[in-house]
Fold this sequence. Notes:
By secondary structure, the chain is mainly alpha-helical. It is 52% helix and 6% strand. The chain folds into 2 domains: 2-126, Zincin-like; 133-203, no CATH class. It is globular and about 45 Å long. It starts with 8 loop residues before the first helix and ends with a helix. Zinc ion is lined by residues 119, 123, 153, 156.
Amino acid sequence: MFEIEIHQSSYINSQDFINNVSNLIYDYPGFEGDEVDNWRIQLAIYQLPQPFRNLLSDEVKVINGCHPYGEALYDRCVYGVFDPLGYGADGRYGNEWEKSIWISDRGIQSGHLQDILLHEAAHAYSYSILNKCFSSNGGSFRELAHKRFGNEENFADAFVHYYGGKWTHYVQRAYLERDDNKWFTDMIEYCAWYIDCKEQLEASF
Length: 205
Ligand SMILES: [Zn+2]
């Protein structure tokens, strides 16, 4: 079940928030959104921890719908999809929904909206941030994350557990190991610093 936490209520009063919701009508194939589901998704975004909340508010579109290529691949509406390049049902990319997260009505009705959103936000973070965040020995943190957790899906599930989520698709665990937990904390802090430095450097040219 979806529950609205009390401390989120201040967001509902902001005019920005109301504008955001009313603007979320997309003329895309597979779009399922109605006002109630858009509200649910927007509230779930506001309940995300940083840095996910900013990423999904500013950079990544979150769409209530049945992703066209996901449906073509799996012959059903998958719960959630992160689509970096805008894939259509024909498998071609470059459509206007590039950098989007799709949460289907099935996903919302599953009762796991918050954890599905965490998982897809982890993919978006991996793609947008970790790809550009390099460790001192030269590898990107996306590569390091895949090495540490096995692959992108296992990494995204570990991220769900890091933020206290319980519902995952690929890896089931009761809790995240202490050293993995520390790895996430350090990585988030380091990459926020790294991206910030990089942007300041680029702005100075
Ligand atoms: Zn995934």
